[in-house]
Amino acid sequence: MSINKFNLLLIKIDLTFENLIHVFIMYLSSLVSKEFSRIKTDKRTLILIFAIPIILIVIFGLTSGGGPTKYFNCAIISRDDLPWGDEVNCTSQYDETFINIVDEDCSAWSLIDSFEIKEDEEYEDAFKECMLMLKNEIIDIFLVLPEEFSETVENETDTTLIYYIDGSDKDSVDAVEVALKEPIALFRIEIEKTTNFVTMAPYLEYEVPFWETQVLNYALAIVLSMLIVGLLMNLTCLSIVSEGPLPRMMLTPTAKKEIILSKLIANSIIMLVQVTLIFVLSAAFGMYCLGSLIDLYIVLISIGFCGICMGLFISAISKTEQQANQLYIMFFIVIIMFSGSFINIQSLPFAMQVIIHSLPLSHAVPLIISITLKGLSIDLAHFISLNLISVAYLFLAYIAYKIKKVEV
Amino acid sequence: MVNVKNNHSNSSKIREGIFSRLERRIFRILRQVKKEFQLMRTDKINLFIALIVPPLIIWLFGMMSTSASKVVPIKIAVVNYDSNSYINQDNYTIITTWDNYSKMYLEAVEKSKYIDLKEYYDASKDIYAMETARDKLRDGKIECIIVIPVEFSEFLTTGLPGIIECVPDTSNAVYIQDRLNAVEDSIDIFVEDNNLDPKYVSMEYQEFSIPSNYNFRFNYNMTMLFSFMVFGISTVLSILVVVQEKPIPRLLLTPAKRYEILTSKFLTYTIVLALQIFLILTSAILNGLYLRNGLLSAIDLYIALFMLGFVGLSMGIFISTVSKTKTEANQLFFAAFIVILLLSGIFVPLGSMPEYLQIIAYILPLSHGEPIIRGILSKGKSVVGFDFFCLLGVSVVCIFLSFVIIKRKRYEV
Questions:
Q1: Residue-number span of the structural domain to which B188 is assigned
Q2: In chain B, what is the greatest distance between 2 CA atoms, to the nearest angstrom?
Q3: Interface of A with B in 40-69 (CB under 8 A)
Q4: What are A250-267's pLDDT values in tens digits?
Q5: B259, B322, B336, B383: least surrounded by Cβ within 10 Å?
Q6: What is the mean pLDDT of residues B364-390?
Q7: Lowest-confidence range among A187-201, A232-246, B29-43, B106-120?
Q8: Chain B residue closest to A324 (CA)?
Q9: What is the number of domains present in chain B?
Q10: CB distance B172–A152 less than 8 Å?
């Protein structure tokens, strides 16, 4: 073959390849526009697509408008006025100081009620009342200052504080020992008895500043990722299974991969609009972001993309809409339960950690936190993992749809 | 006499008529319930997902909670400034470099089972110790920095309070308390080992707690997760039941009334719900759910979960009657579910919400889920109470609205 002929062949192949791509893109864009016109026909759904993210973020934004709350609602029973030891050393000068400190000076404590016991019989009634308040969750804890409280403080011997806590409230049980140090420290400083006193002064690093909406910003990472994944899964989980004309399209030269691809593109465009809405509205409600907003936006888009891929997978494996819906809620529940918010991932054996890391929220939450609160750039390990999960679901969706029997 | 006889026969005829009409209605409803079950049986995978998957999720969660180790040591770096020169504030000529207490404190840090000491920096030798530690904290290599200040030993020796500074990574609210607790544990060991009297000793009595032979983590989390799980799966079970069914318009050509159609759907899905709750509860109990009053608590819990599920079912059918298309029903469900979830107190505490939102939250079902379940499981409370009646009220309103809407809905036959 002469060189000229060979060049001609190459040009021909090139042209054919170019044509192929051109045709493919044309074909795909017509499929995508078909998707949009299908969505446009159902005006109510179209409105809901854009109204739902707005409503959800507005409600989430409003939830944090109540200001900070005290951590421990408590009651105190003081038995300090009851006689203890010999009459010469008997004193009850410190219990009121302690109660006043809990009432007025502590940031983590809110005193609901206090009882000063003068006689033993009164203690039983006070104890019953406190127990009832504890049972009805009016208080989280009640403290009992023993008979020897002031005497031990005065004599600088070990002082005992008795407390009864609602053991069904894990957060309170975990926090009580550290929280108790606050009134004790303030009390010891107030009465100027600080010999051998060792305490901890925490300086919180990467916290949400107090002038920002702390509740909203601490919940932001989990709520935003949950919202975006859920929203996009919801949008796409019926996209294949519910579409009537799809089996008929199989009679045309349209390939299944083109159908999946067109749905992916159409839904991704909707996702971009939804994520932008969520992003802008979150900022309007006081989202605190130390890092780059562009990085955060990219991460939110990745989370949304993962939601689309999971939704397409659910839609591809389901035979009926009811099935798709059921699978969707199961996936959603699993994603939230195993997001790491309820179980510390590090405490799990390796195999369990793998299960959790194969779900999007275990990557989405640290990614958002590292950008918003730590001011870091995108954590590549988590970002790649999140996108790998998306690709895996997309691939599985394609395989499932390819082997799915479609009756025309 | 004849009139009395006629009246008597008329009234008995009327009574018979009412009874026969009622009988026919019940017969029609039962036939439709049967039809619904037949319809359900055609989609076996759907039934499998509805009945088997939720108990499997609970089983997996139970397994994870059980296998999770109880103590995960916190990765910590200690930066010690105590050996640096301390200039006495009252007399600037006195400069000391005492560090006897910091050595003892370091021993306590090493003793604590809650601390994994990753790095130790002596700031008297490494002036950039704190910067290095901060870099490690930022990169997630450590979770907390303990700083022993320059005056630590001097203060303790002279009767002033010794303050341990602690810099925990607080970007993830879930782990803050564990980090503070770990540092506090090291201080307690330090005080105890070195007889730093007087001590303030706390005696803890936990009321309504989970017994030690039960998994605390699983039980605590289940009180929160039960409600949103049961509510979610029962709502999703019913959101398409009216909107998707094509034979409804055709059914309306028969003597079947709209309310009969809806009643039959309620009956069918209530039976499925009862079975779902039974399986979920069984799975949870087998995984170590603690019931304070044994069988009585189990019955109470079953009723509570059923009530939560029934609210979900009523809301699902309400959404289904309101919606015109399946996609619309699906989206409405998601919007309603997330709003209810956001206002449930699971992610944002109810107490920190503005008052008007708290009122809305108390109208919605999930804010009653956790209190009612916790009350039954750990406090041995009865299911019947404020929360139960709130749930009942919400479901009655949803059922009423569903019947009103389906009566007014236009169907093209």
A1: 74-193
A2: 127
A3: 42, 44-45, 48-49, 52, 55-56, 59-60, 62-69
A4: 666 667 778 888 888 988
A5: B259
A6: 88
A7: A232-246
A8: B46
A9: 2
A10: no
